[in-house]
Amino acid sequence: MNTITLKRFIALLFLLHLSFPVSAQNPSFEGIYNLLLPGEVAYVTVQVKGSEAIIILLDEEAWNPFIGSVEGNLLTATGVTAIVGVDIKISISLSTSTIANITIDSCNPVNDETVCNYPDGSTFQALKVF
């Protein structure tokens, strides 16, 4: 198992064992989305409990975890830098119950081996699959 795979596995175990409050769930963001990226196949799964959120981005090469919070119709999140390899912050809003609008608020590489695939301010849509 290479280092990146091991780090992602450890991060997944960590995320699965976070203690979220059981009450006051916000299901409006929850679900699996098809992320509409040019020339790529990618999916996003969102789990929300109370005001806390976990987002897992799955693409053809890897998965990347994000941790965030929900306030009203806005979900803000940051990538788990040690896994994602960049210091990235995103915002997600819902335009309908099945369409999410995603904005990259900021993205900064943390070393010379990583890059941001999209510049700050880039926007994308995701369609809820279920």
What can you see in these coordinates?
This protein has one domain: Lipocalin. 14% of the residues lie in helices and 48% in strands. The N and C termini lie far apart (32 Å). The radius of gyration is 14 Å and the shape is globular. A hairpin with a 3-residue loop joins strand 3 and strand 4.
CATH class: Mainly Beta
How many domain regions? 1
Strand-residue proportion: over 45%
Count the strands?
8
The dominant shape is globular
Calculate Rg over CA atoms: 14 Å
CATH fold type = Lipocalin
What is the annotated CATH architecture?
Beta Barrel
The chain-level structural class is: mainly beta
Strand arrangement, largest sheet?
1-2-3-4-5-6-7-8
What secondary-structure arrangement, pairings included, does this model have?
Blueprint: H1 3-16, E1 31-36, E2 42-49, E3 52-59, E4 63-71, E5 74-79, H2 81-84, E6 86-94, E7 99-109, E8 123-128
Antiparallel strand pairs: 1-2, 1-8, 2-3, 3-4, 4-5, 5-6, 6-7, 7-8
Considering the chains and any ligands shown, give keywords for the structure.
130 residues, mainly beta, Lipocalin, eight-stranded antiparallel β-barrel, 14% helix
Short description, anyone?
The protein has 130 residues and is mainly beta. It is built from 2 helices and 8 strands, in the order αβββββαβββ.
